[in-house]
Amino acid sequence: MSFKHIMIIVVVAVSVFIVNLDVSITNIAMPTLNDYFKVGTGDTAKIVLSYLLSLSGFLLIFGKLSDEFGSKNVFVPGVLIFMIASFFCAVSESLPLLIASRFLQGAGGAMIASTYGAIVIQYLPQNISGKAFGLITASGGVGFALGAPIGGYIIEKASWHWIFMVNVPVCLLTLLLAHYVFREKPAAGESAVQQSAPAQPPESLENGGGFDYPGAVYCFLFLAAFVYAVNQGKMTGWLSPSIILCYAAFAVFLPLFVIRERCAPKPILDFSLLANKHIIGGFIATLAVVMTLDGLSFLFPLFFEIVKKMTPAETGRLLMIFPLLSVVLSPFAGHLSDKKGPAAVSVSAQFLITVSAVLFCLFDQESGLLLVNLALIVFGAGLALFFPSVTALVMSHAPVGREGMAMALYASVSNLGSILGISIFEWLFAVFNPADNTSYIMNASDVVRGFNATAVFAAVICGAGFLALITSSAKKKNEGASLQA
What we know:
- The protein has 485 residues and is an all-alpha fold.
- The protein has helices spanning 3-27, 30-37, 41-69, 72-91, 95-113, 116-123, 129-157, 161-165, 167-181, 203-206, 213-236, 241-263, 277-307, 312-319, 321-340, 342-360, 369-396, 403-431, 444-473, 477-484.
């Protein structure tokens, strides 16, 4: 691995780190922002929602632009936009300006999230791509884990403005490094894809119909409508006028998007990607794992604090198992993917996650710390092995010139899993728990019943993801023969 390769990984890893840090660092500031702007939680929730809407709505669009103009030509402006938006967030003295700045920040985050996989595939040799994904995944996990403690410290010692301002020098340094490492295209044979960082640069938009503007509009609107409905439905009411309007928008714009993409000369989404069994297997497994991770992460504190009588600090220390294992094992997972192949590592990781979900089904009032720690360690190890390997699996099967689209789809599936995981697991918990969703009236048996129901669901969907990976990784006899020929 050359110095330039190391610097490319550093640029991408730092960018992913700062995007993930900003998600969790903002959440810890919500009570402070309520007091500062003298508004309720419903108003400050729009700070998070605007970012989520922008990130979700723009992923596929920027993935397509990455394939047309080259991944670096979307990634680098994405870092710049994220930096500018962070500055405006930091100097915002009104809630509307902060919400608008967060929307712009989400667009920058979408540009980074939809292209970093293509950067790895296009600018790094194939024999180190797994290691690169492992290091980037570890960096993202650390960013997300450190957001709350760093945010709390900054707010206590300075002010909430600085949780955004800290992004500016980091992004500026990243831009300077990016200018150095992306000055030249990779030499022929240096990367995993015969170095077509841009597949066919801007000229490709001039031959064959240009950019699909209607498809981009339909894509943003149906995704934004879905995200808004799922995110706000419980707060405003699932049958409130705004949510019903979102249902209608989703029902209208999703079919319009599909119809448009099937006839557009240069579609935002090439549906042939979904015909690739390796890619679709990776997507199914990712959806199951992210739903499980985000859904159970929402419920773990309830179980440990109400059933096991742990303090919030003790619960926090226990849940640090995930990010710690991510830091330790993700680089190893990437190295293993390079040696054994990402499919084999993904299957093994999914198996561990499924086993851990089965162990979670055994949690009750009598569960000892041995079972609890064993289940969490198996879960954390599975997660640490899964994300680098499944990202490498999906990207290694992306057609040349479609790496950005494949990465954007992967990021969209992950984002969808996060949104659905919290909503579905919370709903299941409530269905099997007769108490209201307020901890002060829940008793331990209620929490155990609700938690076990969600754990069973997690085991089922993770098992389905395991089968999807096994099926997609299986080779037909004639495939094996052709490979040996």
